[in-house]
Amino acid sequence: MIWYIGRRLLQMIPVFLGATLLIYVMAFYAGGDPIQAIMGDKPLSPAVQDQLRSQYNLDKPLIVQWLIYVGKVVRGDFGVGFNGRPIFEQIRDAFPVTFRLAIIAVVFETILGIVAGVISGLKKGTWIDTTLLMVSLLVIAVPTFVIGFVAQFTLGVKLGVVPVNVGRDASLQNLLLPGFVLGVVSFAYVLRLTRTSITEVATADHVRTATAKGLSRTGVISKHIMRNSLIPVVTFIGADLGSLMGGAIVTERIFNIHGIGSVLYQAINKSESPVIVSVVTIMVMIFLLTNLIVDLLYAVLDPRIRHAK
Amino acid sequence: MSISRRSMILGTGAAGTAALALSACGGGSDSGDGGSGGGSGDPVYANETEPQNPLIPTNTNEVGGGRIITSVFAGLVYYKADGTVENDVADSIESDDNQTWTIKIKDGQKFSDDSPVTAKSFVDAWNFGANTKNAQLSQSFFEPIEGFDKVSADKATGKETLSGLKVVDDLTFTVKLVSEQSDFPNRLGYSAYSPLPESFYDDTKSFGEKPVSNGPYMVDTWDHDQQIVLVPNDKYDGPRKAKNAGVTFTIYSSDDTMYGDLESGEVDVTDLIPTSALSSYQDTLGDRAVNDPGAVFQSFTIAQNDPNFSGEAGKLRRKAISRAINRKQICDKLFYGTRTPATDFIAPVIPGGGEKDIPGAEVLEFDEAEAKKLWEQAEKKQPFKGEFTLAYNADAPHKDWVDAVCNSIANTLGITAKGKPFPAFGDFREQITKRELKGAFRSGWQADYPSAYNFLGPLYSSAAADGKGSNDGDYKNPEFDDLLKEGLSAADENAAIEKYKAAEAILMEDLPAIPLWYQNTFGGFSENVSDVKYGWDTVPLYYAITK
């Protein structure tokens, strides 16, 4: 088990290097000249432009810029942004907020999604099942920003029960609605995934055997159906935590939450490669870690899966 | 400077309003606890975008930082709401020849750390801003001062100083310019000309987070990307004394959220209305909605090196395109009256701007028959190749109006005209700077200081062409340059304006840029505040607001 975890952690090093290089190249070719973005339409003498370019290593070849960047990151120095603030500090301030938001979204999608999915799966073909499926389809079909704006307008502007602008005070309570908006699409996926899984397992031989042995309905569901059918759901939720952190851009903008999504958005606007790369790389790392945790959870859920080979 | 995108409106936030008889009722507040004029102890909440640079006056070139700099620093002069110039720190600014200026400052002025504001505070700050070594974004503002070429050289070490700046005594200094400039005093309210205390040079980094300043407010806290809290500065004793208990700027990443906050009374004063609310905000807010003439001029530029637009045929073609645009319809239908069709090249809040009697100005009127006729004349001389494109940056809300303008041109002239989006502002500017962009590209300008010259010189003079300024189309016309020069050395403002109007008549003929409309000052305020006035530059006069 230890060997397995160690191997997985070692695999992250090439992924980290590859991801940073790839993102560096993309950021470099996507945004145009960052110095132009800094100066706006004001004329800036070539002398000052050169000064700024060398200050941010923009005068060096792309691969050299990347090497300098990676070299510094390995030593724990993420560099300084165009606004003079250390990039590490920018990320450190924004990260907890997005993390809280993503956790709220995951908790919500997990609990509601699994409960609704189990009901749906066990009552397959009834009106409850149909209604839940319809709801989930509707949620998947409507884009997040529509759900976000409608929720904000009705609950915030018209009814005044939640703050319109969460940025001023990103407490757990104020993050509930944005968290709900962020997690609502995943909720629909979890519901459908759970339902499919449950219906498959519910007709399996071992379930019939368990029922025939005279086990109570609840016992059969919790011990024999749920445990087996949750594996794909857990996989999805694990992977989703990573995508939620990256996908929070839209939700964060709607509710004016200053999280990692808005840092990324602004950095892209300013073609600020070091910030973009730092944020995305951290995302990639989180993604890999959650995947590892999910893989380890398999073993807990299903004794047949063992990593110690 | 252009209105390239929301966060890039490089404007000065300086503005002023007559501190009317309010001082009679209880006097201006002279402390941070509770404003006067019936204000409560609550701060005024205002909209803001995260400043893109540390709060250093010479390094702030966008509106997010400009708002703060203008509120916390006092320059030699300030601008009243109508754009007229009044002394702030200055006692007098005088010159016999419009070239050597003697500036006296008021005695007894202090920075928030109690150090005195002296002539040296200005001279050192300007030298710092002008020196290439310090890579300050507003360096070009010191160009008119003698010796700029030395301090802005590539090899500047930070030690060189502007030879045109001389400290005479504690309260007096002289400025020698490279040429006669009658509007020089008008410039001095721009934030780049603010004074800096001695302590700035010891630690620019922490100064940029929390400046020691001499204006109506000082920075209390700056929570990055969340809010900036300003409290009244009791060391300030000038004409812009704060009439409230402070201003808290909430940083919004989306205009729509900001508008939602305005509707629910969470923000007191805004100078932005999201595109989605343009049609309804005046009904929603009633008499708390603001929509007045503004200081922003929008146009599109056609590069002089575009073969389709060269020579006599090019001139006719530009006129045809200008005549083919139904400006009024776009301003009414698309912008809901928050833009005003242009009749000249200078925004209407500026003295000498928004003039309707410039010779040749009929070229800005929509006239289908005339447009067709001009286009045919041009076709006879030299057929048009390819299609007409209008480039813009897609990271700001330009697509709708660009499409509308292109449709107007296409329908009138029967040619193919379409928008050419660039994903990011940096991309767009890079193409323009490299002079690789053919066809037309959007251009906009918000003056840095209220002066007609500032809408002409930086944009169309030969001196600003070829990458040396904002003349991105590289338009050159000696006759036009001469008229500008005469305007700058004119005896008084009216004489200067006559010269500028004559210069504009040349622009009407040549159309280096095709004027579209002036952007109004639009915004709104909540029920909790009164005395909300907007400056000539569209930014509210925060210090005058009572709550």
Automatic annotation (TrEMBL), chain A:
Compartment(s) where it occurs, according to its Swiss-Prot or TrEMBL record: Cell membrane
The UniProt record lists the keyword Cell division: no
Transmembrane segments: 12-31, 97-119, 131-155, 175-191, 230-255, 275-301
ABC transmembrane type-1 domain sequence ranges: 95-298
InterPro entries associated with the record: MetI-like, MetI-like_sf
Protein's membrane topology: Multi-pass membrane protein
Family: Belongs to the binding-protein-dependent transport system permease family.
PANTHER family on file: DIPEPTIDE TRANSPORT SYSTEM PERMEASE PROTEIN DPPB-RELATED (PTHR43163), DIPEPTIDE-TRANSPORT INTEGRAL MEMBRANE PROTEIN ABC TRANSPORTER DPPB-RELATED (PTHR43163:SF7)
Name by which UniProt lists this protein: ABC transporter permease
Species this chain originates from: Brachybacterium kimchii
Origin organism lineage: Bacteria, Bacillati, Actinomycetota, Actinomycetes, Micrococcales
UniProtKB/TrEMBL annotation, chain B:
Ranges where the Solute-binding protein family domain occurs: 85-465
Gene3D superfamilies for this protein: Dipeptide-binding Protein, Domain 1 (3.90.76.10), Dipeptide-binding Protein, Domain 3 (3.10.105.10), Periplasmic binding protein-like II (3.40.190.10)
Protein name in the entry: ABC transporter substrate-binding protein
Region called Disordered, residue ranges: 27-60
InterPro entries: Peptide/Ni-bd (IPR030678), SBP_5 (IPR039424), SBP_5_dom (IPR000914), TAT_signal (IPR006311)
Ranges of biased composition (kind: Gly residues): 27-41
Chain intervals with Polar residues compositional bias: 49-60
